């Protein structure tokens, strides 16, 4: 186990190196000049030249990369071209927001998706099954932005129960914080719930037809114990992987949803940075999300082993 | 059993949440919804329109403008230009303090102006380029010595170039000053969470504090216009800027809301590539082709189709309501027959293909499509090329376009709407327009101070530009601001910025 962990951690290094190289070169392929974008309407050649020099944008790209890597290795991710805020403090500001939103979304997804999947597998062919399938189809095919705006109209404008957008930090007021994130979390969770439901259903169906489940039933175990203790445990392995991958995606920022609900998370940060050609911010955020994604994958592998003792060899 | 317990838990949780949904806000907090997250809040380095909305509550300027575009005193009391136009003497308001308690005086004013002029990366440098040096005459008087007479100077001081910063705070913070700006405006900085909110509180020692009635101002960037309006309707905001023209009916129908519309000082137009086009398209070959394109356009139809008739058709770099508008050259009517004749005279092969660069955005794209179908009837084939905003500037500068649909936020002096786009080799003259006669007139207008004389010069310039057609001016936007009916005292100013002085929340 330890060996396995150590190997995976060492693998992180070359992966992140390639990620950094990729981000850096890809974003320099984007047309547009950061200094020009920064100047916006105030396009004065002398000022633009000064900005280029100040941010070393006049240097060859490999040199710029070296400057950046050197900074990152010493813990300095640079500063935002647009706001002069250090990239690390931007990340520190946004990460908790995105983490809160992502965890709430994934909890909602699991709470809806797994029970729905189990019910539709156990009650295959009944109204329950069709109902769950209908829900899944709806969840997958509803665009986030549409659902988001509809929820705002219903809960904020018509009923006046929830704030239409914005974010209150957990530390400031946890109730207001949950009220401000429940709609976006539901929008995100709903789509994932649908995917989880489909996967849980098919995994459960497969397991329910296997020999050991038949044996368990033949032993006279209650149906409840057969399903929850015997069948579900085995069916859960692929669902965990799926959940971890979805969580990784959520953590890299739910761009559209954050935009609609004005949640100041990673998604909004990176989109604004890309449009403003705020290179240092894009690089910093992508590097951090890549690290999170890879780590979550690693954690999923560990969870696999915990759930399924056969992999513990 | 377990499922029931779960359900009960969920219902309880939902009920709990709902009871906290409507959070009570303090009566005296003004929450303003912005269309973007502003850039750095440093008057020397700020570049965005949305940043100027925030500055209007935080950083007072030497001068301000009123509803009719008159220049009025703010931190300055008066200004006087010498007979040769090379010296501008400014008297300052006494008893003014910065947010950190430092006194605002001639030394501080000199420092602020010099910072705008010399600070690395300052975007104010071009605006104050005419200034050679600044002298302190007495503790409340400064004198700006100019390299050459420059009549738009005082107008420049009504915006960021006229904002005064605390010398002590600016020296200490260096290029990080914008993270915690210290100015002399009605509200002082409390906190900023990037892309989330900017909080300011009433400045107790503000020189005009008797006219400040709201305790806190919070700016919330909400990019989606629909969501911004939804927040206003649900009470999450008190004021929202940049309401869509298509939402006007909705706002007017809501009794709890009020709509305020100010005609912008800028314009929207089609920049034509005259001398910077490598492919030498039809538009670059003859003024007649450009005039034909202009005549094929029905400006009234554009504003009707795309903007519900709320925007104002225009044909000059300033709107028909601007004091410098040249009434001798009214907005032309569409004239297809004449357009076709002009094309025939120019001898170009039809249809004239035009590469039209259009920055991404629903409204832009709709305008482009209307233009396309109108111009087609005269014999033009406008090929719409939608492009991301950041890229469009780069390509514009490189001359990679034949027509470029682009707006300008506008400056209060007509010079700010014309010189940088029309003067030979000016920084934003992307189409390479050059007419020595026009250059001379633009230079003359900068030297003359008398408004009547200036207007006469601009009349000649307008005639030339309308004939050469480097830019086809199309329309002027209305800067739409919606606010709760509880907000009293709101005055629309043509620059679209929110003046917090005199505002009351019932």
Q: Supply Rg of chain A.
A: 24 Å
Task: Please give the alpha-carbon distance between the first and last residues of chain A.
Answer: 8 Å
DSSP helix fraction of chain B:
25-40%
Q: Give the overall pLDDT of chain A as a whole number.
A: 84
- Strand-pairing-aware structural class of chain B: alpha+beta
Largest interface, with counts of residues having CB < 8 Å to the other chain, equals: A-B, 58 and 58 residues
Percent of residues in helices of chain A = over 70%
**Gap between N and C termini of chain B, in Å?**
52 Å
What is the H-and-E element order of chain A? HHHHHHHHHHHHH
For the biggest sheet of chain A, the summary is:
none
Relative strand content of chain B:
15-25%
Could you name the ranges of chain B where pLDDT drops below 50 across 5 or more consecutive residues? 15-25
Biggest beta-sheet profile of chain B: 7 strands, mixed
**Envelope shape of chain B:** globular
What does this structure look like?
The complex is a heterodimer of chains A (313) and B (506). Chain A contains 13 helices and no strands. With 313 residues, chain A is an all-alpha fold. The longest helix of chain A is centred in the middle third of the chain and has 36 residues, at 87-122. Chain B is of the alpha+beta class. Chain B is 33% helix and 22% strand. Chain B is built from 16 helices and 21 strands. A seven-stranded mixed beta sheet of chain B has the order 8-9-10-1-11-19-12, sandwiched between helices. In chain B, strands 14-18-13-17-15-16 form a six-stranded mixed beta sheet. Chain B is globular and about 70 Å long. In chain B, 51% of the residues are buried. Mean pLDDT of chain B is 91; it is low at 15-25. Chains A and B meet through α2, α3, α5, α7 and α8 of A and α1, α6 and α13 of B.
